[in-house]
Design a protein that fits this description.
Layout: E1 16-17, H1 19-22, E2 28-41, E3 44-57, E4 61-65, H2 72-79, E5 87-97, E6 103-105, H3 114-119, E7 124-127, H4 131-134, H5 141-152, H6 157-170, H7 176-179, H8 189-201, E8 207-211, H9 219-236, E9 239-244, H10 247-253, E10 256-261, E11 264-270, H11 271-276, H12 281-288, E12 340-342, E13 346-348, H13 356-370
Parallel strand pairs: 4-9, 4-10, 7-8, 8-9
Antiparallel strand pairs: 1-6, 2-3, 2-5, 5-6, 10-11, 11-13, 12-13
Helix pairs in contact: 5-6, 5-8, 6-8
Protein backbone atom coordinates (compact mmCIF):
# COMPACT_ATOMS: atom_id res chain seq x y z
CA UNK A 1 0.00 0.00 0.00
CA UNK A 2 1.30 3.48 -0.84
CA UNK A 3 2.21 5.66 2.12
CA UNK A 4 0.03 8.47 0.81
CA UNK A 5 -3.08 6.31 1.27
CA UNK A 6 -2.45 6.07 4.99
CA UNK A 7 -2.71 9.79 5.69
CA UNK A 8 -5.41 10.76 8.16
CA UNK A 9 -6.08 14.46 8.67
CA UNK A 10 -6.82 16.01 12.03
CA UNK A 11 -5.29 14.95 15.34
CA UNK A 12 -6.95 13.70 18.53
CA UNK A 13 -7.68 16.01 21.45
CA UNK A 14 -9.41 19.34 21.83
CA UNK A 15 -8.04 22.23 19.79
CA UNK A 16 -9.45 24.81 22.21
CA UNK A 17 -7.26 25.45 25.25
CA UNK A 18 -7.67 27.60 28.32
CA UNK A 19 -4.94 30.13 29.09
CA UNK A 20 -3.41 28.10 31.92
CA UNK A 21 -3.27 24.88 29.89
CA UNK A 22 -1.78 26.67 26.88
CA UNK A 23 0.92 28.39 28.92
CA UNK A 24 1.36 31.12 26.30
CA UNK A 25 3.35 34.21 27.15
CA UNK A 26 0.97 37.22 27.19
CA UNK A 27 3.14 39.21 24.76
CA UNK A 28 2.88 36.53 22.05
CA UNK A 29 0.14 36.18 19.45
CA UNK A 30 1.37 32.82 18.11
CA UNK A 31 3.64 30.20 19.63
CA UNK A 32 4.93 27.36 17.46
CA UNK A 33 6.26 24.45 19.51
CA UNK A 34 8.20 21.54 18.04
CA UNK A 35 6.22 21.60 14.81
CA UNK A 36 6.72 18.67 12.46
CA UNK A 37 5.18 18.64 8.99
CA UNK A 38 5.95 15.57 6.90
CA UNK A 39 5.14 14.40 3.39
CA UNK A 40 4.26 10.73 2.97
CA UNK A 41 5.47 9.71 -0.49
CA UNK A 42 5.95 6.44 -2.34
CA UNK A 43 9.69 6.69 -1.65
CA UNK A 44 9.39 7.36 2.06
CA UNK A 45 8.70 10.13 4.55
CA UNK A 46 10.03 13.61 3.75
CA UNK A 47 10.48 15.66 6.93
CA UNK A 48 10.05 19.14 5.45
CA UNK A 49 9.59 20.73 8.88
CA UNK A 50 11.34 18.78 11.60
CA UNK A 51 10.81 20.25 15.08
CA UNK A 52 10.47 24.01 14.55
CA UNK A 53 9.81 26.34 17.51
CA UNK A 54 9.41 30.13 17.58
CA UNK A 55 6.98 32.83 18.71
CA UNK A 56 5.33 35.74 16.92
CA UNK A 57 5.00 38.70 19.34
CA UNK A 58 1.94 40.93 19.20
CA UNK A 59 2.42 43.93 16.95
CA UNK A 60 5.93 42.88 15.91
CA UNK A 61 7.60 41.44 12.82
CA UNK A 62 9.53 38.20 12.89
CA UNK A 63 11.70 37.34 9.92
CA UNK A 64 12.01 33.68 8.92
CA UNK A 65 15.17 33.37 6.82
CA UNK A 66 17.14 30.66 5.08
CA UNK A 67 18.03 29.34 1.65
CA UNK A 68 15.51 27.66 -0.64
CA UNK A 69 14.75 24.21 0.74
CA UNK A 70 15.05 25.27 4.39
CA UNK A 71 11.34 24.68 5.08
CA UNK A 72 10.27 28.33 5.43
CA UNK A 73 7.22 28.21 3.17
CA UNK A 74 5.99 24.86 4.52
CA UNK A 75 6.26 26.32 8.03
CA UNK A 76 4.18 29.32 6.90
CA UNK A 77 1.55 27.16 5.23
CA UNK A 78 1.40 24.96 8.35
CA UNK A 79 0.28 27.99 10.37
CA UNK A 80 -2.81 28.17 8.15
CA UNK A 81 -3.13 24.38 7.77
CA UNK A 82 -2.66 24.70 4.00
CA UNK A 83 -0.46 21.65 3.46
CA UNK A 84 -1.15 19.88 0.18
CA UNK A 85 -1.44 16.08 0.18
CA UNK A 86 0.45 13.89 0.75
CA UNK A 87 1.70 16.20 3.50
CA UNK A 88 0.31 16.84 6.95
CA UNK A 89 1.20 18.14 10.40
CA UNK A 90 2.21 15.07 12.41
CA UNK A 91 3.11 16.61 15.79
CA UNK A 92 3.75 19.82 17.67
CA UNK A 93 1.59 22.80 18.53
CA UNK A 94 0.60 26.01 16.73
CA UNK A 95 -1.06 28.10 19.45
CA UNK A 96 -2.99 31.17 18.32
CA UNK A 97 -4.72 33.76 20.47
CA UNK A 98 -7.83 34.63 18.47
CA UNK A 99 -9.54 38.02 18.37
CA UNK A 100 -12.01 36.93 21.06
CA UNK A 101 -9.15 35.90 23.37
CA UNK A 102 -9.73 32.18 22.78
CA UNK A 103 -6.56 30.09 22.38
CA UNK A 104 -6.66 27.44 19.67
CA UNK A 105 -4.11 24.83 18.59
CA UNK A 106 -4.21 25.02 14.79
CA UNK A 107 -2.21 21.79 14.55
CA UNK A 108 -5.21 19.89 15.94
CA UNK A 109 -7.80 21.33 13.57
CA UNK A 110 -9.20 19.50 10.55
CA UNK A 111 -7.57 21.35 7.61
CA UNK A 112 -10.84 21.03 5.69
CA UNK A 113 -13.12 21.98 8.60
CA UNK A 114 -15.14 25.10 9.36
CA UNK A 115 -12.94 26.08 12.33
CA UNK A 116 -9.80 26.61 10.27
CA UNK A 117 -11.78 28.34 7.51
CA UNK A 118 -12.99 30.85 10.10
CA UNK A 119 -9.37 31.53 11.10
CA UNK A 120 -8.04 31.98 7.56
CA UNK A 121 -8.45 35.60 6.54
CA UNK A 122 -9.99 36.73 9.83
CA UNK A 123 -7.14 35.88 12.23
CA UNK A 124 -4.28 34.91 9.90
CA UNK A 125 -3.80 36.00 6.29
CA UNK A 126 -1.18 34.90 3.78
CA UNK A 127 0.44 37.11 1.14
CA UNK A 128 1.85 34.82 -1.53
CA UNK A 129 5.11 35.27 -3.42
CA UNK A 130 3.52 35.47 -6.85
CA UNK A 131 0.21 37.39 -7.20
CA UNK A 132 -0.58 35.82 -10.59
CA UNK A 133 -0.59 32.39 -8.92
CA UNK A 134 -2.74 33.54 -6.00
CA UNK A 135 -5.24 35.78 -7.78
CA UNK A 136 -7.80 34.42 -10.25
CA UNK A 137 -7.29 35.61 -13.84
CA UNK A 138 -11.00 35.21 -14.69
CA UNK A 139 -12.41 37.36 -11.86
CA UNK A 140 -11.84 41.04 -11.19
CA UNK A 141 -9.72 41.91 -8.18
CA UNK A 142 -12.79 43.54 -6.68
CA UNK A 143 -14.83 40.35 -6.87
CA UNK A 144 -12.05 38.45 -5.13
CA UNK A 145 -11.68 40.99 -2.31
CA UNK A 146 -15.47 41.23 -1.89
CA UNK A 147 -15.73 37.44 -1.64
CA UNK A 148 -13.10 37.41 1.12
CA UNK A 149 -14.99 40.11 3.02
CA UNK A 150 -18.38 38.41 2.73
CA UNK A 151 -16.97 35.05 3.90
CA UNK A 152 -16.17 36.60 7.29
CA UNK A 153 -18.55 39.58 7.57
CA UNK A 154 -22.31 39.91 7.13
CA UNK A 155 -22.29 42.70 4.54
CA UNK A 156 -24.46 43.17 1.47
CA UNK A 157 -22.89 43.57 -1.97
CA UNK A 158 -22.75 47.39 -1.87
CA UNK A 159 -21.27 47.58 1.62
CA UNK A 160 -18.71 44.90 0.75
CA UNK A 161 -17.78 46.72 -2.46
CA UNK A 162 -17.36 50.01 -0.57
CA UNK A 163 -15.09 48.26 1.93
CA UNK A 164 -13.08 46.68 -0.90
CA UNK A 165 -12.54 50.11 -2.49
CA UNK A 166 -11.48 51.47 0.88
CA UNK A 167 -8.97 48.61 1.27
CA UNK A 168 -7.52 49.36 -2.17
CA UNK A 169 -7.15 53.00 -1.16
CA UNK A 170 -5.39 51.98 2.04
CA UNK A 171 -2.75 50.10 0.06
CA UNK A 172 -2.33 53.16 -2.20
CA UNK A 173 -3.86 51.60 -5.29
CA UNK A 174 -4.11 54.39 -7.93
CA UNK A 175 -7.71 55.16 -8.96
CA UNK A 176 -9.13 52.52 -6.62
CA UNK A 177 -12.71 53.17 -7.80
CA UNK A 178 -11.75 52.10 -11.33
CA UNK A 179 -9.11 49.48 -10.50
CA UNK A 180 -11.60 47.45 -8.47
CA UNK A 181 -13.14 46.27 -11.75
CA UNK A 182 -9.78 45.40 -13.32
CA UNK A 183 -8.50 41.89 -14.01
CA UNK A 184 -5.05 40.86 -12.84
CA UNK A 185 -3.57 40.88 -16.35
CA UNK A 186 -4.53 44.56 -16.62
CA UNK A 187 -2.35 45.52 -13.63
CA UNK A 188 1.39 45.99 -13.21
CA UNK A 189 3.37 43.74 -10.86
CA UNK A 190 3.31 46.34 -8.09
CA UNK A 191 -0.45 46.87 -8.48
CA UNK A 192 -1.11 43.12 -8.38
CA UNK A 193 0.90 42.88 -5.19
CA UNK A 194 -1.10 45.76 -3.70
CA UNK A 195 -4.36 44.02 -4.69
CA UNK A 196 -3.22 40.82 -2.98
CA UNK A 197 -2.23 42.73 0.16
CA UNK A 198 -5.63 44.46 0.15
CA UNK A 199 -7.37 41.07 -0.05
CA UNK A 200 -5.18 39.67 2.75
CA UNK A 201 -5.92 42.65 5.02
CA UNK A 202 -9.61 42.98 4.14
CA UNK A 203 -10.80 41.43 7.40
CA UNK A 204 -8.06 43.04 9.54
CA UNK A 205 -6.26 39.82 10.56
CA UNK A 206 -4.07 39.86 13.65
CA UNK A 207 -1.25 38.06 11.83
CA UNK A 208 -0.12 38.54 8.24
CA UNK A 209 2.27 35.96 6.78
CA UNK A 210 4.24 37.45 3.89
CA UNK A 211 5.92 34.65 1.93
CA UNK A 212 8.66 36.23 -0.22
CA UNK A 213 6.24 39.03 -1.22
CA UNK A 214 8.84 41.19 -2.99
CA UNK A 215 11.06 38.60 -4.71
CA UNK A 216 9.54 39.02 -8.17
CA UNK A 217 9.46 42.84 -8.02
CA UNK A 218 11.99 45.41 -9.16
CA UNK A 219 14.01 47.22 -6.48
CA UNK A 220 11.90 50.39 -6.50
CA UNK A 221 8.58 48.53 -6.23
CA UNK A 222 10.09 46.24 -3.58
CA UNK A 223 11.00 49.25 -1.43
CA UNK A 224 7.50 50.68 -1.88
CA UNK A 225 5.82 47.42 -0.82
CA UNK A 226 8.07 47.13 2.26
CA UNK A 227 7.21 50.71 3.25
CA UNK A 228 3.53 49.90 2.76
CA UNK A 229 3.69 46.83 4.99
CA UNK A 230 5.44 48.82 7.73
CA UNK A 231 2.84 51.58 7.52
CA UNK A 232 -0.10 49.17 7.63
CA UNK A 233 1.42 47.24 10.52
CA UNK A 234 1.90 50.41 12.53
CA UNK A 235 -1.61 51.60 11.73
CA UNK A 236 -3.41 48.33 12.53
CA UNK A 237 -1.00 47.00 15.22
CA UNK A 238 -0.87 43.65 13.46
CA UNK A 239 1.87 41.04 13.70
CA UNK A 240 3.87 40.10 10.61
CA UNK A 241 5.74 36.91 9.80
CA UNK A 242 8.05 37.83 6.93
CA UNK A 243 9.58 34.91 5.04
CA UNK A 244 12.58 35.54 2.83
CA UNK A 245 16.02 34.33 1.80
CA UNK A 246 17.21 37.96 1.80
CA UNK A 247 18.81 38.97 5.10
CA UNK A 248 19.09 42.54 3.84
CA UNK A 249 15.28 42.78 3.78
CA UNK A 250 15.08 41.21 7.24
CA UNK A 251 17.48 43.80 8.66
CA UNK A 252 15.20 46.51 7.31
CA UNK A 253 11.80 45.22 8.41
CA UNK A 254 12.08 42.67 11.27
CA UNK A 255 12.16 42.98 15.05
CA UNK A 256 13.18 39.36 15.60
CA UNK A 257 14.74 36.69 13.39
CA UNK A 258 14.50 32.90 13.17
CA UNK A 259 17.12 31.33 10.90
CA UNK A 260 16.01 28.01 9.38
CA UNK A 261 18.07 25.25 7.82
CA UNK A 262 16.75 21.93 6.51
CA UNK A 263 13.46 22.09 8.39
CA UNK A 264 14.86 23.34 11.71
CA UNK A 265 15.48 26.64 13.47
CA UNK A 266 19.23 26.94 14.00
CA UNK A 267 19.26 30.41 15.57
CA UNK A 268 16.75 32.99 16.73
CA UNK A 269 16.81 36.28 18.57
CA UNK A 270 16.39 40.07 18.21
CA UNK A 271 17.39 41.34 14.79
CA UNK A 272 20.15 43.63 16.09
CA UNK A 273 21.71 40.82 18.14
CA UNK A 274 21.62 38.42 15.20
CA UNK A 275 23.39 40.85 12.89
CA UNK A 276 25.87 42.21 15.42
CA UNK A 277 26.83 38.84 16.91
CA UNK A 278 25.65 35.84 14.86
CA UNK A 279 26.34 32.64 16.78
CA UNK A 280 25.61 29.86 14.29
CA UNK A 281 28.06 29.27 11.40
CA UNK A 282 25.14 29.19 8.97
CA UNK A 283 23.89 32.60 10.14
CA UNK A 284 27.39 34.03 9.80
CA UNK A 285 27.63 32.61 6.26
CA UNK A 286 24.28 34.15 5.29
CA UNK A 287 25.37 37.55 6.59
CA UNK A 288 28.71 37.38 4.75
CA UNK A 289 26.80 36.75 1.51
CA UNK A 290 24.94 40.10 1.73
CA UNK A 291 26.27 42.80 -0.63
CA UNK A 292 28.08 45.51 1.37
CA UNK A 293 26.97 49.10 0.88
CA UNK A 294 29.66 51.75 0.80
CA UNK A 295 32.41 49.37 -0.34
CA UNK A 296 34.33 50.92 -3.22
CA UNK A 297 35.67 48.93 -6.12
CA UNK A 298 34.97 45.30 -6.79
CA UNK A 299 33.89 43.28 -3.80
CA UNK A 300 33.50 39.52 -4.10
CA UNK A 301 30.60 38.05 -2.16
CA UNK A 302 31.30 35.03 0.03
CA UNK A 303 29.05 32.26 -1.25
CA UNK A 304 28.07 29.41 1.05
CA UNK A 305 29.73 26.21 -0.10
CA UNK A 306 27.51 23.35 -1.21
CA UNK A 307 23.73 23.27 -1.35
CA UNK A 308 20.85 22.54 0.99
CA UNK A 309 20.26 18.78 0.68
CA UNK A 310 16.82 17.35 0.07
CA UNK A 311 14.99 16.64 3.37
CA UNK A 312 14.86 12.93 2.43
CA UNK A 313 18.67 12.93 2.30
CA UNK A 314 19.32 14.61 5.65
CA UNK A 315 22.93 14.27 6.90
CA UNK A 316 23.51 12.42 10.14
CA UNK A 317 24.25 14.62 13.13
CA UNK A 318 24.09 18.39 12.65
CA UNK A 319 22.22 19.08 9.39
CA UNK A 320 24.72 21.79 8.44
CA UNK A 321 27.92 19.88 9.24
CA UNK A 322 28.79 18.94 5.63
CA UNK A 323 28.87 22.65 4.66
CA UNK A 324 30.21 24.09 7.90
CA UNK A 325 33.70 25.70 7.98
CA UNK A 326 33.88 24.94 11.73
CA UNK A 327 33.01 21.25 11.39
CA UNK A 328 34.32 19.04 14.24
CA UNK A 329 34.90 15.46 12.94
CA UNK A 330 33.45 12.75 15.14
CA UNK A 331 31.19 15.25 16.86
CA UNK A 332 29.15 17.29 14.38
CA UNK A 333 28.54 14.27 12.13
CA UNK A 334 27.22 12.18 15.02
CA UNK A 335 25.29 14.41 17.43
CA UNK A 336 22.16 16.41 16.59
CA UNK A 337 22.55 19.76 18.38
CA UNK A 338 19.54 20.84 20.47
CA UNK A 339 18.17 24.38 20.27
CA UNK A 340 19.56 25.87 23.49
CA UNK A 341 19.00 29.21 25.16
CA UNK A 342 22.06 31.48 25.15
CA UNK A 343 21.40 34.44 27.39
CA UNK A 344 17.95 35.91 27.92
CA UNK A 345 16.72 36.31 24.32
CA UNK A 346 18.95 34.14 22.11
CA UNK A 347 18.64 30.51 21.05
CA UNK A 348 21.13 28.58 18.95
CA UNK A 349 21.41 25.01 17.71
CA UNK A 350 25.17 24.45 17.39
CA UNK A 351 27.60 22.12 19.14
CA UNK A 352 30.07 25.00 19.43
CA UNK A 353 27.76 26.34 22.14
CA UNK A 354 26.74 23.02 23.73
CA UNK A 355 28.11 20.69 26.39
CA UNK A 356 29.37 18.11 23.90
CA UNK A 357 30.44 15.59 26.53
CA UNK A 358 27.01 15.61 28.16
CA UNK A 359 25.34 15.17 24.76
CA UNK A 360 27.69 12.27 23.95
CA UNK A 361 26.84 10.57 27.23
CA UNK A 362 23.11 11.03 26.65
CA UNK A 363 23.43 9.67 23.10
CA UNK A 364 25.36 6.60 24.29
CA UNK A 365 22.82 5.98 27.07
CA UNK A 366 19.96 6.19 24.57
CA UNK A 367 21.72 3.76 22.23
CA UNK A 368 22.28 1.31 25.11
CA UNK A 369 18.65 1.48 26.23
CA UNK A 370 17.45 0.84 22.65
CA UNK A 371 19.54 -2.33 22.51
Amino acid sequence: MLLRKKIQYGRPGSAILDADAAGMRPENLVEVRNLQTHFFTDRGIVKAVDGVSFAVPKGKTIGIVGESGSGKSITARSLMSLIDPPGRIVSGEILLERQDGQIVDIARLDPFGSEIRAIRGADIALIFQEPMAALSPVHTIGNQIIEMIQIHEDLDDKAARDKAIDMLRRVDMPKAEQRIDAYTFELSGGMRQRAMIAMALACRPRLVIADEPTTALDVTTQATILDLLRELQSRDEMSVMFITHDLGVVAEIADEVAVMYLGRVVERGPVDDIFEQPMHPYTRALIRSIPKLGVRGRHRLEAISGMVPHPSNRPQGCPFHDRCPEFMPGVCDRIVPPLEKIGERRDVSCLLHSDVEALKAASEQETTSDE
